């Protein structure tokens, strides 16, 4: 049985690039370390009431932080205290990007992340996740600092997520396939468990918040009705699976195939999910796994971002399913 830790895997990948300096590898290793610490805290979340930690201070007299703030702080501390790779970071928890150029001279990477997506689900023991996107600093000195974070998804050099579920998993791509590592809690190591993940070309499941159906546009409404029609020759109806926690919904569909949609609707005309630290990293992963990601009209990875926290409609998953959904949304199919 082959047994490979994430550190070993990252180093092996780096060796295929003789020009690599090890900085990206160091950054990925730092993110994996942050994931272990966040995962440990997420797993203890259910004990908070039992241990009497619900006030503003815990039993040690320390202030209790909300888990999403704890996750943000953990990532910032580990990344900015790492091997000096980071020029700037953007987080869902900060209004503006944080420049590290004065503390870490020479940093050449930018990281955008959602430290703990789906955190409103934690009390119900639902899986949550950390999502990250890594970009290179523009070599062009004329680009403003804020613009550094706002690059198209196609510019990402690596992307991934850590899912805190029945087990903790680290899933990433640096452009050479999508690989998944499962945390062995006894060893405290992420072990390669899913090498070269490919998502099925067509799935059997759809994931969307159907409570919003009265607010959808006609294309989305018709597509979802189509998926529910009885047509065994065409492998319909599809099954509905919606957790309401993006990483968990995405991870299931990545492994089993299917489509996830958070389209624009009357309440969320831009969609709900964030382009730079939710849609772009998941789009890079799905494309490297053989799937697609679109806003209904455009490839997610080619959208020009205007703002760090910009929202975008997201249709992501198996190639066949995303292509068909986009045809409905664009009015090319109207059955
Ligand atoms: P948040 O930014 O308020 O945490 O919301 C993000 C979450 C995603 O994890 C999930 O895909 C989506 O919101 C679910 O939204 P809804 O409850 O509207 O279906």
Summarize the structure in words:
α2 runs antiparallel to α3 (67-80) and α5 (218-228) packs across α8. The chain has helices at 6-15, 23-43, 67-80, 145-149, 218-228, 246-256, 275-288, 319-329, and strands at residues 86-91, 98-99, 109-117, 128-136, 158-164, 168-173, 178-184, 189-194, 205-207, 239-240, 259-262, 292-294, 314-317. The radius of gyration is 20 Å and the shape is globular. The longest helix has 21 residues, at 23-43. The chain has eight helices and 13 strands. The protein has two domains: 6-194, Fructose-1,6-Bisphosphatase, subunit A, domain 1 (Fructose-1,6-Bisphosphatase, Chain A, domain 1, 2-Layer Sandwich); 205-329, D-Maltodextrin-Binding Protein, domain 2, CATH 3.40.190. Helix content is 29%, strand content 20%. The strands form two sheets. It has an eight-stranded mixed beta sheet, with helices on both faces. β5 and β6 (168-173) form a beta hairpin. It has 335 residues and is of the alpha+beta class. Residues 117-118, 120, 209, 244-246, 272 line the site of 2,5-anhydro-1,6-di-O-phosphono-D-mannitol.
